[in-house]
Specification:
Shape of chain A: globular
Radius of gyration of chain A: 24 Å
Number of domains of chain A: 2
Number of domains of chain B: 5
Largest sheet of chain B: 5 strands, mixed
Number of helices of chain A: 7
CATH architecture of the largest domain in chain B: 3-Layer(aba) Sandwich
Strand content of chain A: 15-25%
CATH topology of the largest domain in chain B: Rossmann fold
CATH superfamily of the largest domain in chain B: NADH-ubiquinone oxidoreductase 51kDa subunit
Distance between the termini of chain B: 70 Å
Number of strands of chain A: 11
CATH class of the largest domain in chain B: Alpha Beta
Shape of chain B: globular
Helix content of chain A: 25-40%
Number of helices of chain B: 24
Radius of gyration of chain B: 26 Å
Oligomer: heterodimer
């Protein structure tokens, strides 16, 4: 355990735990747009910047992204100085120019008193805030099907060479983790369309509803050692069957009791 | 032949020196990139052909030698006749026959091909007397232009790999590190981190594998010194890296070179192969316990890959994006192992320090910035090229004494140092001593030593817009302040150039610049607003002229200027023929008339007029 000071309060934390986690455990609300518990931090949104210093730094201080800075003994952390709030406000101002339609961005910008951007609204902007949550979760799954392509201001999330990603298995992890719901997909007639690709869905043997893409089922069978017949029946039907079995058990118990 | 001991190296050196010094007279043709682009290969081949035909007693085919870059790229192709040091400039294939007949056979100097001193208007025969060379002190570029970069024997002849031999046989790794620390050498890539300290930290970092990487990415527009060093003296870089490997205990090194430097890649690969063949690289170097290999890693030419963490990801085969460096790369770098990353120039300097001692190096330059630094002079300057000077020399000496000043009788306005992330310094700073700390203090930086000189026909707002555009297209796009912030800053700068900005916009730009500086993830973003901030610091009046008066003092911003024809017009019709929108009318030998309503201010007439009769206001 190490000992630090956060906003004047002495705090203990496991050595190396990222500052953002420690700060939030103290009930202090430091904003972040790219942080997600399921994936490694990447430091792209810069909203979680905090100011750090140490006794032996003789007044020298620096700004670091708390999601990526490990706890260490003797750190003195400030999370809401006027300078930090000004930086966060400017960053939200930039987000508002890029993603004016995103409710998440609008809501966070409002917390800094911003209803419209001070900058030029970007014509080709959409609701993608480039937080990389989708590419990072894809990496966690070991697929790396999508990534950021192009560079700088033209950067977008896409498959390799901006083509439909050959390694995608249609698992929807990216769409589910996306904080601004910008990743489009739809299921129709036993197929799922996402990232410009179409996948076959396994249909439930009982109700006929699409359960999972065949590719994702294969992946899970192999990687997670899930029995081959696991995906033959959908979760709803499994529940119904289980309830029926449980009901049978109750009847049996009643029979035994009487 | 495998060189597996110091004795063998010394013996080999004697042989190499004999061959190298054998021709009494030498014809040296520069085959550096600048001269090559101007046709020096043809010149070289023509010399070989004619010398073979003429059968001159003291000049044989072996006397015709090619070398790497001499640095004076503005005057290429360059030919030097030794031992007299006769320096011929802008030599074409057609001049060769004359040089062979008059100079090689007749021992006569051809005045027409000599350098003309800009100040005295006199012809200078010997290159050592040309101010461009006379004021330089060459350490990192010590062999550039004297040896054939494709021959390891040339490098051995001029004392190559002696420093490596000294380090391996008479010094411990710690002593090497101490020597570099004592020399005060600071990283030549731009940030100026003490090299000895970097090596010491890496050597101490506990791990089985340590890496040594050479940064040859050199992405700054206007900088070309690393390209020259790699292409003209590759073994110096290799030798510096091997010494570093010995000091930090590394077995594998990489040279990261951008794909846009194809000649450097070929030359380096040849050097690596030759060094391996002779046992100076690979297993048991010089018969000692040290085994070290170097591979070339070619980059795609992304500016951000010059940043250490992005470079290492690129070497590892990943996308070249930086990561937050709260654990430094000397502890956890390439493949998460301790890694030393130094610039080409730094490595090229190392053998000289090891050979001649830390005290010699520390005695050059200033106390906090020791040694020399290579600068690439480009832009509005007479002597475009590479110069190496002691640290602490003033900008005035570099630009005016060595660089020859601004051409075409125009006035010096500013110098941009440190590449796109550096800053512009005005005339008032011309006597600033050039070292790491003074440049940073003045709001610019050393960077990789690029110097772009600007004259009074430059608009500083437009300059800021240009450099910001470069950074916008080179930003990797990972973090918001850099990706979105630089874009918006560039847009606002363009608004100033168009005369549409307000003073509130300027205040917004200043706020935004601060956020980008503090909030960005890597050095690219953190220094990204510098082109704007430094021009604003020294040329605020120019910004205000665009905003308040809707005027461009440099006469560059198209929306704010008008062209007119003055009485100096001789009626030569030149402007009429080039005007793409037919805004100029008139007859031969009568003053022409320009219709401001049709003119779209492209500047073609201004460029073509030989009588200074086009006025911009």
């Amino acid at each position: 355990m190490v000992q630090m000071t956060i906003n004047g309060k002495v705090v203990k934390a496991p050595d190396g735990e990222m500052l953002l986690t420690v700060i939030r455990r103290q009930g202090i609300d430091v904003p972040a747009l790219c942080d997600h518990a399921a994936v490694e931090p990447c430091g792209s949104c810069r909203m979680c910047l905090v100011e750090i210093t140490r006794e032996d730094w003789n007044g020298w201080k620096k700004y670091v992204t708390s999601c990526l800075y490990p706890s260490e003994n003797g750190l003195i952390v400030s999370t809401h100085t006027p300078e930090l709030q000004e930086i966060r406000r400017n960053i939200m101002d930039l987000y508002l120019a890029r993603c004016p339609g995103s409710e998440l961005v609008q809501k966070m910008a409002e917390e800094y008193g911003l209803t419209r951007t001070s900058y030029k609204t970007i014509p080709e902007g959409d609701n993608c805030i480039m937080c990389y949550a989708c590419t990072r979760i894809c990496e966690v799954l070991g697929r790396n099907a999508i990534s950021a392509v192009h560079r700088g201001h033209a950067k977008v999330i896409s498959g390799p060479f901006d083509d439909p990603p050959p390694d995608c298995i249609g698992c929807l992890s990216c769409a589910n983790i996306c904080p601004t719901d910008v990743i489009e997909w739809h299921d129709q007639d036993g197929t799922r369309a996402i990232w410009g690709r179409t996948f076959d869905l396994i249909s439930c043997r009982q109700c006929g509803k699409g359960i999972i893409t065949r590719d994702f089922a294969e992946y899970l069978k192999e990687k997670r050692q899930i029995p081959a017949d696991y995906f033959e029946i959908c979760d709803d039907c499994k529940r119904v069957e289980l309830a029926r079995k449980m009901g049978g058990l109750v009847d049996l118990a009643k029979e035994v009791a009487s | 032949m495998r060189i597996d001991s110091i004795e063998k190296l010394d013996k080999w050196r004697k042989e190499c020196r004999r061959t190298f010094e054998a021709p009494k007279r030498k014809v040296i043709v520069c085959l550096g990139e600048g001269c090559l682009a101007n046709g020096s290969e043809e010149v070289f081949n023509e010399f070989k052909k004619l010398v073979a035909e003429k059968k001159i007693p003291d000049v044989t085919v072996e006397s015709v030698a090619k070398t790497g870059c001499h640095g004076f790229c503005a005057l290429g192709p360059l030919v030097i006749i030794e031992p007299d040091g006769t320096f011929y400039t802008k030599v074409s294939k057609g001049d060769v026959a004359k040089i062979v007949d008059k100079t090689l056979i007749g021992h006569e100097i051809i005045d027409k091909l000599l350098y003309t001193d800009a100040k005295t208007a006199e012809k200078v025969a010997n290159y050592e007397k040309i101010p461009f060379y006379a004021r330089q002190q060459r350490i990192s570029l010590r062999h550039c232009g004297t040896i054939d970069p494709h021959k390891i024997t040339d490098y051995i002849a001029v004392g190559g790999y002696a420093a490596l031999g000294k380090a391996l046989t008479t010094m411990t790794p710690q002593q090497v590190i101490d020597e570099i620390t004592k020399s005060g050498l600071r990283g030549r890539g731009g940030a100026g981190f003490p090299t000895g300290k970097k090596w010491a930290t890496c050597a101490k970092a506990p791990a089985d594998v340590h890496y040594v990487i050479c940064n040859g990415d050199e992405g700054d527009p206007g900088a070309f010194s690393d390209r020259t060093t790699m292409g003209s003296d590759p073994h110096s870089v290799l030798e510096g890296m091997i010494i570093c490997a010995y000091a930090v205990g590394s077995h594998q090194g990489y040279i990261y070179v951008r794909e846009e430097y194809p000649l450097a890649v070929v030359t380096l690969q040849k050097a690596i192969d030759e060094a391996k063949q002779h046992g100076l690289l690979g297993e048991h170097i010089l018969g000692t316990e040290l085994s070290f290999d170097i591979k070339i890693s070619r980059g795609g030419g992304a500016f951000v890959c010059g940043e250490s963490s992005a470079l290492m990801r690129s070497v590892a085969g990943e996308v070249g994006e930086p990561r937050a460096k709260y654990i430094r790369s000397v502890i956890k770098g390439l493949h998460d192992q301790p890694t030393v990353l130094n610039n080409v120039e730094t490595y090229a300097t190392v053998p000289a320090i090891v050979e001649r001692g830390a005290d010699w190096f520390a005695g050059i330059g200033t106390k906090k910035s020791t040694g020399t630094k290579v600068f690439s002079l480009a832009g509005k300057i007479k002597n475009t090229g590479l110069v190496e000077v002691p640290m602490g020399i003033t900008l005035r000496e570099i630009i005016f004494d060595i660089g020859g000043g601004v051409p075409d009788g125009r006035k010096f306005k500013a110098v941009q140092t440190g590449g796109p992330s550096g800053g512009c310094l005005p005339e008032g700073k011309i006597d600033l001593p050039v070292d790491f700390d003074s440049l940073t203090e003045a709001g610019s930086m050393m960077g990789s030593g690029g110097m772009v000189i600007m004259d009074d026909r430059t608009c500083m707002v437009e300059v800021a817009r240009y450099f910001l555009s470069f950074l916008v297209s080179e930003s990797c796009g990972k973090c918001v302040p850099c990706r979105e912030g630089l874009y918006q800053l560039r847009e606002l700068c363009a608004k100033v150039c168009d005369g549409e900005a307000t003073e509130e916009d300027l205040a917004l730009m200043e706020r935004l610049a601060k956020t980008i500086k503090v909030g960005s993830l890597c050095g690219l973003g953190q220094s990204g607003p510098n082109p704007f901030l430094s021009t604003l610091l020294y040329f605020r009046d120019e910004y205000l002229a665009h905003i308040r008066d809707k005027k461009c003092p440099g006469g560059v911003c198209r929306k704010l200027i008008t062209y007119a024809i003055t009485d100096a017009c001789t009626g030569c019709m030149a402007c009429i023929s080039v005007c793409p929108v037919h805004a100029i009318t008139g007859e031969r030998k009568k003053k022409h008339v320009l219709d401001k309503n049709i003119c779209d201010r492209c500047g073609s007439c201004y460029a073509v007029c030989k009588f200074d009769a086009i006025e911009i206001s």
